[in-house]
Amino acid sequence: MGTENKACVLMQRYELGKLLGQGTFAKVYHGRNLKTSQSVAIKVIDKEKVLKVGLIDQIKREISVMRLVRHPYVVQLYEVMASKTKIYFVMEYVKGGELFSKVSKGKLREEVARKYFQQLISAVDFCHSRGVYHRDLKPENLLLDDDGNLKVSDFGLSALAESKRQDGLLHTTCGTPAYVAPEVINRKGYDGAKADIWSCGVILFVLLAGYLPFHDPNLMEMYKKIGKAEFKCPNWFPGEVRKLLSRILDPNPNTRITIARIMENPWFRKGFDDKLMHNGMQTEEVVPVDVDSVFCSSENGKSEVKQEMMKPANMNAFDIISLSAGFDLSGLFGQTDNKREARFTSTQPASSIISKLEDIARRLKLKVKKKDGGVLKIEGSKEGRKGVLAIDAEIFEVTPAFHLVEIKKTNGDTLEYQKLWKQDIRPALKDIVWAWQGDQQQPQEEERCLPLQ
């Protein structure tokens, strides 16, 4: 935290409390406003790290989006501050935890699931009215407050209306695989509002069933099911819900039900208070902050660290068919002990994979050279039996939540490489690996085909 945290006080305005959670680039603390004693959540982002791996635009977008959206069922951003090394998001403190925690214990009662769905639709409808499309709606991004009300969070993958191309569609493949709409997977351009509606339908199914509508141990098979909307409602689903879900989970976005129509649905309207939709809404920007300034030094206004381009090669799920016979991912996982390359899949973001590879290289005293196109080139520091050992690590993006990583030797002695690989590199990667090539045992996910992050 640097000098700002010597007395556990940030910018002479907030008292910092316990650590609530942390990721690769940020930590979230409980905080208290010194003037009002209000509890807040303070997200502390390491500025140098996000600049280094090219996440500037994502952070700027998250700030811009949260400035536009003020709604009783959306986590509120109070203010954004910055020091020379850190960015601080001061946000509403929501201490009820993730909705995912409730669902992981089993299906919810119909009236409880309906209440959360009503609140979700109200929040999403408001976001869309402000030109904001979330694009990563899932139970893990839905928090609960003291009163058990839902709060939509994590706008890091959201898009603004101006992100659309001339065809009026969005073209960035993102979201969590099990919740993503068919048109997003197909990468032919999609309407952000319709894609969010699909995700809301998956969430409704999960709330009522306790498991995902589209799940298969084979990723490609799961995508085929999503593309055709192949799902089966449990026998305890009311007939009204079955009909509503069939209209929400319509694989054709042009005929998929709209939010306006969902709000007219008899099942949806039971116990629904229209006043809740308008309570606390504001149309003005609520956080007057210069988005660009948070990435500038307070001394000279210039960016402190040049952005180094290191983005994964974008890889549509269907593009990897060429690497896998018959839609079976096991074709990617042949025995490779005596080969010069290995592949693994990961549900970590590309930035976390890159950071992990860099940490391993530093620990092994290897040099890291960044290259465009999602390739890291790693070299030994001294000559081996057959020259300097060189290793390429290439990251392919299936979706932002699922990556394929290929590591191969490009120079040096094969035996030296295999020894280094087996004894040092592979064991060190275990924290970010979802499945290795050649490994028969697949992760256990209790009816979920991918970790739901």
TrEMBL record:
PROSITE patterns for this protein: NAF, PROTEIN_KINASE_ATP, PROTEIN_KINASE_DOM, PROTEIN_KINASE_ST
Catalytic activity: L-threonyl-[protein] + ATP = O-phospho-L-threonyl-[protein] + ADP + H(+); L-seryl-[protein] + ATP = O-phospho-L-seryl-[protein] + ADP + H(+)
Signal peptide: none
Enzyme Commission code: 2.7.11.1
Transmembrane segments: 195-214
Gene Ontology biological-process entries: signal transduction
An annotated Gene Ontology molecular function: protein serine/threonine kinase activity
Protein kinase domain residues: 14-268
Database matches in Gene3D superfamilies: Kinase associated domain 1, KA1, Phosphorylase Kinase, domain 1, Transferase(Phosphotransferase) domain 1
Residues involved in ATP binding: K43
Keywords: ATP-binding, Kinase, Manganese, Membrane, Nucleotide-binding, Serine/threonine-protein kinase, Transferase, Transmembrane, Transmembrane helix
Pfam families cross-referenced by the UniProt entry: NAF (PF03822), Pkinase (PF00069)
UniProt cross-references to InterPro entries, sorted A to Z: Kinase-like_dom_sf, NAF/FISL_domain, NAF_dom, Prot_kinase_dom, Protein_kinase_ATP_BS, Ser/Thr_kinase_AS
Coiled coil spans: none
Domain NAF: 310-334
Family per similarity comment: Belongs to the protein kinase superfamily. CAMK Ser/Thr protein kinase family. SNF1 subfamily.
UniProt name for this protein: non-specific serine/threonine protein kinase
The organism of origin for this protein: Dioscorea zingiberensis
